[in-house]
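Troubleshooting log. The previous structure file for this entry was overwritten by mistake, so regenerating from the original sequence record. Sequence copied from the archived sheet and checked twice against the printout by T.R.
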Amino acid sequence: MFTPYRFSWALAATCAAVLLGACGIDLLNTRAGRELAQKAQPSGSVYTGWRVFQDKCAACHGPAGLGTAAAPNLLPKVRDIGPRQFVDIVLRRYDWNIPADRIVSQGAGREALIEQLVQRQDYMLTMPVWQGEPRVSAHIVDLYAYLLARSEGKQGTERPQP
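Regenerated output below.
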């Protein structure tokens, strides 16, 4: 026999099942979102990048990457380029300020640009090429992750957590 007591008990059980099911769906939805957000982040350790930056870059660019009289603020520059261009600039180019169309792969144009750089006629020769430096080249992705986190405001000027 179906009594009001059994009806309310059945209704409560049904509501509980629906709510628990909804929580499970919500949990799955947030987990997928977190996984996508994590995959969207650059692979690399912000902490390791900070260590490399402090060791190799901070002397010129300042301990927070905000620039000094000797070198520019890196944060807006990193925000505007992707990881591939960052690697290319740090490992192979001397100066952030040389327009890409001025870089000639070979021939007389390249030799003229090199001569201008060496004589400091056109652009200052301040950024060393880090391609032969194992600490930088081995951790270039970490360096990018650190500078990108700084430029996006996800990392402050303090030491990141390891």
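The helical segments are 4-40, 46-61, 75-80, 83-92, 108-118, 134-138, 140-151. Archived copy saved in two places this time.
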